[in-house]
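Our preliminary data section would be incomplete without showing what the modeling component actually yields. Below, a chain of 157 amino acids is followed by its predicted structure, encoded as tokens that our downstream tools consume directly.
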Amino acid sequence: MIKKTFKLTREGINELKSELHDLKAQRVGVAEQLKTAREFGDLSENAEYDAARAEQRRVELRIKEIENILQNVKVITEPNQNDKVGIGSKVDLEECSGGNSIKTFHIVGSVEADPMENKISDESPIGKALMGKKKGEEVSITTPGGAETLYTIKKIS
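Predicted structure:
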């Protein structure tokens, strides 16, 4: 069986460790909910018990998932050279069709990706389009909706 390696920044690793700590602390509360729900009697028609069991499964599955990620992590270090986009790079893009708005993206591994925070995976369409590019290059990015937009790389850090 081939193990998957998960690419994370130090910040991403710390966030997962914090989440793992919180989830392990939740175990006590979930166990207490199960105990209380059992006291209501017949478990076959006990909605509180079913809900507590579902929460227990969710917590335990997430704990196992995080532990697996942390056991198979490859730390993304900040790129030594800022001449090419790589994992860990922060990239400023300017749309070529006008306007002076700059979009900044942080290229991260898929586990750490969070589009709402402009953290995009190296495996995403935008990430793939940017990887290996240099400052000043134009990059064509196709959105999931099929629209194609041309950007210029203004800065790589």
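DSSP finds three helices and seven strands in the chain. The longest helix spans residues 10-38. Preliminary results of this kind motivate Aim 1 of the renewal.
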